[in-house]
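Help wanted!
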Amino acid sequence: MKNAVGREIPDEILKNGREVYQGKNYKDGKYIKKASPKSRMFVKPQESKLVATLKEACIQCGAHDGMTFSFHTELRNGDYVGAMAARVLVEELGLKNITVAATSLGAAQDVIADYIEQGRITGVQTSGVRGRIGEVISAGKLDAPAVIRSHGGRPRAVEADEVHIDIAFLAAASSDCCGNSSGVGGKNNFGSMGFGTHDAHYADHTIIVTDTLVDFPNLPSSVSAIDVDAVVVVDDIGDAGKIATKEARMTDNPRELMMAKNAAAVIAATPYFKDGFSFQTGVGGPSLAVNRFLEEHMREKNIRMSFALGGTSKAICDLMDKGFVRHILDTQDFDTGAAAHIFRTPGHHEISLSEYANAGNKGAYVNKLDYVVLAALEIDTNFNVNVITGSDGILRGAPGGHPDTAAGSKCCIIVTPLTRGRMATVCDEVVTVTTPGDCVDVLVTDYGIAVNPLRQDLIECLDKAGIEHVTIEQLRDKAYSLVGTPDKLEWEDKVVAIVEARDGTVLDVVRKIKPLDVNAEGEEVKF
Amino acid sequence: MRYPTNTQKNILKGRFETVNINAEAVAGTLESSDAQVTVRPSDRGLFVHIESSVMNQYGRQIKATVIETLKGLGVRFGNVEVVDKGALDCTIKARVECAVMRSNDASESGV
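Answered by r_m:
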């Protein structure tokens, strides 16, 4: 069945009430029945919930075949806990048919790729998938397709009991013996624990894994002892130095700076740019640099931001310290500078992924967002964006909050170079739709700006401000003239991943790629 | 940069009906957006092997560019191996030409 973004969704996916995507506000006003976890009673006075090993803690929490476990990825590339938990369940306890439900998956959890290949981990639910795990899923090594959800879609699915977590393994920079735990106060501080807090409320069992045990009570805490079954102390929860692959710093690439400057000029030309506006940006080179140019426009107009949202970098913290930002609502810290800023600075708050972006609750912050500046792997002439599959059809990306912020914001700006190597970023049809085109308003590339024709109001604003723009078809033509028109990818029937829209409907599916072979064995070339 | 040698000029202008691959020669690198072309002598015919990081979308075009370039040069015999890292057509063409030149001692190595 074809969905609202023109993608053919096979019927066998549409079981158990699963529907195709029917537009960004299709589920508005409908109800969800919230799941409740099974929660163990701790009636008897207890000195401590410390357990000597993760294995013992898992046994105490009833680890079993067919279970689902979760972890958060606040330590990003430096996370050890996800891999640690998988290893204990698979190797030490010998469990089978395990499902992993994580906020992301990447090189730090490469061992999970082995377990998928061995058929021990059989289900994957995630908001991002990179590295070898993406390759094995793309190769069709899972029996059931992986489910990819946005950062807002994940807590919605957990609340709707579409994902039921048996054990959440939550890395904490510090914890007391009862599980009051935090993303700071230890030796591997990651700052906001907003990726993990929601799991503690909905998982049947929560195990805190920390490398820094502190005196009771560890307050203020991000996860409360009332949600914690066991605390395990390990040597290291990760390597906080790897949170940012490189310290988020301002790019000096002139191409990226030009795009950032143009994106800031677009923002300044729209009516929402007034005192009390709200803003989110990613941490990629051009996106991060928008902060710098935005500061100049804010200074000129003498206005302040009411709140900055989402993943937080030092750049936005600096802007707050200069008095330009009243609140930072922080789900994740992209660098150690931001991780050191939260909890020490009034106005810099930790929020959960549900508060951030969940379309299933009654007040997600994304719905109050004026601007979001995002990147893209690909964007097509219908403004549909792909951030999950490479142009070779292999899973290697993360929707994160992309679809949520694009849908919630008044003005969503995509900043991306027109080409990357030989790949055309602006194309006829994206490999996979992760963010629907009607949520995307402006595209800024190094070869020009295009505005979604659905937003005639923004076109008028840009014209009035004298900002040149072209059609997205012109940008695509330019891209193809540089790199050549790509051949269409060829697919097998097997679906390897389902991409859910933020409301739980099916936005797209990723099939197994049929690799192209141009080397017929020993074939002689004749002119 | 050195001026093209007479052999180079003649090859590029298609003055030879046939250009031989006389010895193994390499041009290009494995850097992103480049292609490494290796040519080896063959007395059986002309064989082309392509590896590419953008195979699924550009494999056919890369192969066509390689064959077109060899045809233009007049190469009838040889084994041509291309390891492409997302190079544009102009780069692929230049690397193929250069490798063929080098197998004719018509270009210096080290680029």
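OP: Thanks! One thing I noticed: Helices of chain B lie at 6-12, 55-73, 89-103.
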